[in-house]
Amino acid sequence: MPKDSGIGASSKRREDVRFLTGAGNYTDDINIYGQTYVHFLRADVAHATINAIDTSAAAAMPGVLQVFTGADFEPVGGIPCGWQVTDRHGEPMQEPKHPVIAHGKIRHVGEIVAAVVAESLAEARDAAEEIELNLTELSAVVDMKDAAAGGTKVHDDLTSNVCYDWGFVEENKGAVDEAIKNAAHVTTLELVNNRLVANPMEPRVAVGEYSRADDMHTLHTTSQNPHVIRLLMGAFVLSIPEHKLRVVAPDVGGGFGTKIFHYAEEAFCTFAAKAVNRPVKWTSTRSEAFMSDAHGRDHVTKIELALDADNNFTALRTETYANMGAYLSTFASSVPTWLHGTLMAGNYKTPNIYVNVKAVFTNTVPVDAYRGAGRPEATFQIERVIDMAARELGVDPIALRRQNFVTEFPYATPVAVEYDIGDYEATMAKLEEIADIGGFAARRAESEARGKMRGLGVNCYIEACGIAPSNLVGQLGARAGLYDAATVRVNATGSISVMVGAHSHGQGHETSFPQVISEMIGIPEDQIDIVHGDTSKIPFGMGTYGSRSLAVCGSAMVRAAEKVIDKAKKIAAHLLEASDADIELKDGQFSVAGTDKSVAWGDVTLAAYVPHNYPLEDIEPGLEETAFYDPANFTYPAGAYACEVEVDPETGKVTIERFAAADDFGNVINPMIVSGQVHGGIAQGIGQALMENCSYDENGQLISGSYMDYTMPRADDLPFYDVDHSCQTPCTHNPLGVKGCGEAGAIGSPPSVVNAVIDALQSGGKDVTHIDMPLTPTRVWDAMNNA
Amino acid sequence: MTSVSMTVNGRSVSKEVEGRTLLVDFLRNDMRLTGTHVGCDTSQCGACVVHVDGRAVKACAMFAIEADGAEVGTIEGQANADGSLNVIQQAFQDHHGLQCGFCTPGMVMSTVALLKDNPKPTEAEVRDYLEGNLCRCTGYHNIVKAIMAASGQDVSSIAAE
To answer: Chain A: residue nearest B43 by CA?
Structure first.
């Protein structure tokens, strides 16, 4: 019987009621008395010297309060990067200054060149048209290999366009080279992990406020992690101490990573609100989002997989170029290194692995984490090269994977991480069942009878979530701790408010977090509320990304609730005139073991706040506890995915006929929400594999700058998905045994789509071994007809 | 400035607006009905779908003055008279047809229009109709399922929760 509340129940989401009735409170819904509007004049060339900017005509336009340029921001800091990577030679990465407004030089299309603050948005826009720019356009560098090779430099003060040349694990390189030299078979693949735009449906918004009365700054912003923004912007950009800066992220309409980062527009609105002494609001248009939100992926890789005569994997070697764009966004440097290289073992016991990553600057929008962040890039390489090896060797791709699975845990990989637990055979067996792989041959015959080619593609994945152990990431270059925090505040009548560092922007925390507390205490879920998204209300937690919310912040919440329960038991013992050790809590009732004496949760909480009969000499009144939780390890969700496609031989069009996902997320709090997370991830993965591509021309002009030319997956592009998360190996090191489910779908799905298309084409007699994503009809048709 | 009068969710309103004011900005800024959202600037995403004289319309693709004299319906007017969710809204909650909620008002407004014209749509018809509404969270699985459930069809055989 499914449970109807608590851990494991598919409780309906309480937040839905406000979203379904138009009562959500998104940042653009916030309007403050006296508010002004900013319009940013953005660069329409990719690389130029700024000789002069004449703002005098703009400043004289109706309604204009002030026009800002880069010179106004000279006294403040640049936008910081949160992770310092050390290169192969022990040197720190090259780290250019990242100005709030371009100063002296323009380095990508969309960079802010000037800003107009006016009484209305229309007036700000009108005035921006009167700004005169005197520019000398420079040649732009767009291709990563060109950028690495020299020539045009994005930053004159750096020695080259190479941010870092990273080797991992450098000491293993010789052994890897040797193993590849001695292999019975080596499969080599060059591939592109296409550049994407995250595209949460809510564009970014920032509203800055300043109060002269108490010298208090407030920023309302579309963020996944308000405390991170407060830290970065306060300490590094504007020099505002924490107690004078409040950051509020109310309802946020999707993030997918791109709302982690601290952006120039946030710093601008905060700064300008004090300068003009009025609230300043910015609402991104979608066109601005395409040229100012951090992009994702954009790797070019050569991967070699070595096998012995028995088809055991013996070594893996990669060389990757990773695009940083023109500046280092908040976590940009960590994505192709620590979130990518450490996952290159995949689900397999390959003994020798070496990963080389060259991160390069180009005249493009900064690139940073997008759903999966480094793990999709790792998974795509591994799972494509294994499929190609299976074809070259004439063996079954599932059998080849099985043969090389890691089967004993804990497992220390050759790339510095230790998988605590998993069962890759279980998820593969579950996948074979739910995908009905046994029935594929009949379905292929049916497709072929209709003149279509049908293919089946399978892949495994593993990822690292629950980011992250602070002492470990500190050694790796992180400039912040990555714990999280929760305060459990029990009210006098027994209801509970839980203030959490995690932020919910679609994940349903307001429903799932109370399920945990309800389970622990035994009171109804509706007696428990989550408070998130406001630094003035919540403890210092690091927010939501990397599928960390429940594994890290949820663990903090459990620890805080345990402290509350311990104290409540002491109060109950006093009321029941019993020993603390004999008190049990079940279904909201404290009882003395072995007796019929009991007292209700609400009577104990009331006693804590009305302490007339209370052990005041031993414990304080009140019932509120905070816990910070720093994880002991990453968590390692893993699974197996299968995709079936039909390819039209006349047009090259690919249709997804079936998609199945078998995931091991450890314990699951709300199965309905978990399935929804996987669905959405799969859609983004299919989007990457078949449709989405952010492209630039050779001059650095953004070609895909709107939904007219960046293909977002729509309802009629996608099927129903079969998803399963019944294979559960609980995480060994956090109190809930949870691993995280937010990114798996996007990590696990692109390889199976591409594997399926290659399978379809080969079944139709086409000698096609690889096509780079996205597999648009044009690319597939070209591959078929040029094969 | 131009005078514009319309009925919004059954209430008569008159305002002075600039000629260039879009209907969606009129609703959000002048009427403070912020449930109607703006997700793009090319009329692609459908987050701003409202009803104008009973038809689903993208409110970013119409000037406020073009709605002069019209009956306009928004997400704020969709719940039952007692404030409870209507059948479509309830189906979206029951089947987890929303995550971040940003596209949701447009999805609900499109669904109302779809089911008015086609009370029992097939899966293919639902997917085809939603061509003008983008969602980045759900992968559409649970939206399609919710719409079919709202039309009274048995969705228990559709995979997963």
So the answer is: A707
Does the structure show a pLDDT above 90 at B155?
Answer: yes
Closest approach of chain A CAs to the CA of B142, in angstroms? 8
Q: Does B141 touch chain A (CB under 8 A)?
A: yes
Distance from CA of B9 to the nearest CA of A (A): 13
pLDDT of A1 reads 62
CA A67/CA A644 separation, integer angstroms: 55
Nearest-neighbour CA in chain A from B132: distance (Å): 8
DSSP lists the bridge partners of residue A317 as: A304, A354
pTM score, two decimals? 0.97
User: How do A496-500 and A638-647 pair as beta strands?
Assistant: unpaired
Q: What is the pLDDT of residue A281?
A: 98
Q: Which of A21, A714, A745 has the CB atom closest to B79's CB atom?
A: A21
Task: Look at residue B157 in the predicted model and tell me its pLDDT.
Answer: 87
**B102:A26 CB<8 A:** yes
Q: Do B138 and A21 touch (CB under 8 A)?
A: no
pLDDT at residue B161 above 80?
no
Whether the per-residue pLDDT at B77 is higher than 80: the answer is: yes
| Element (DSSP H or E) covering residue A781 | helix A777-786
> Residue A285: which of A37, A78, A69 has the closest Cα?
A37
Of B100, B124, B138, nearest to A252 by CB-CB distance is B100
Examine residue A169 and say whether the peptide bond preceding it is cis (omega within 30 degrees of 0).
yes
Beta-carbon contacts of A627 under 8 Å, excluding residues fewer than 6 positions away, are: A485, A486, A556, A557, A559, A560, A562, A563
In this prediction, residue B30 carries a pLDDT of 96
pLDDT score, position A151? 85
> Which residues are CB-contacts of A294 (< 8 A; sequence separation ≥ 6)?
A198, A257, A258, A261, A325, A329, A332, A365, A366, A367, A368, A369, A370
Q: Tens digits of per-residue pLDDT, B24-58?
A: 999 999 999 999 999 999 999 999 999 999 999 99
Interface mutation vs chain B, best among A16, A30, A288, A674, most B CBs within 10 Å: A16
B92, B105, B131: residue with CB nearest A716:
B131
Domains of chain B by start residue, with CATH: 2-77 (3.10.20.30), 87-150 (1.10.150.120)
Residue A221 token pair: 């912003």
- Rounded CA separation A137/A118 (Å): 29
Neighbours of A439 (CB within 10 A): 10
Beta-carbon count within 10 A of B37 CB: 30
**A659: nearest CA partner in chain B:** B159
Among B38, B86, B93, B100, the strongest candidate for a mutation testing the A interface, having the largest count of A CBs within 10 A, is B100
Nearest to B141 by CA among A720, A97, A307: A720
| Residue A291 confidence (pLDDT) | 98
Size of the A and B interface in Cβ pairs below 8 Å: 201
Residues of chain A with pLDDT under 50: none
- What token pair was written down for A282? 């910015």
Supply the DSSP string of chain B, one letter for each residue: -EEEEEEETTEEEEEEE-TT-BHHHIIIIIS--TTS----SSS-S-TTEEEETTEEEEGGGSBGGGGTT-EEE-GGG-S-TTS---HHHHHHHHTT--SS-SSHHHHHHHHHHHHHH-SS--HHHHHHHGGG---SSSTTHHHHHHHHHHTT---TTSS--
Is residue B42 less than 8 Å (CB to CB) from chain A? Answer: yes
Picking from A198, A225, A221, the residue whose alpha carbon sits closest to that of residue A549 is: A225
Question: Over the stretch B93-103, which tens digit does the pLDDT of each residue have?
Answer: 999 999 999 99
Q: Which residues pair with B64 in a beta bridge?
A: none
Longest dimension (CA), chain B: 55
Give the per-residue pLDDT at B158. Answer: 86
The structural domains of chain A, ordered by start, are 16-22+483-629 (3.30.365.10), 421-463+636-787 (3.30.365.10)
Which letter does DSSP use for residue A12 in this model?
P
Rounded distance, CA A88 to CA A85, Å? 10
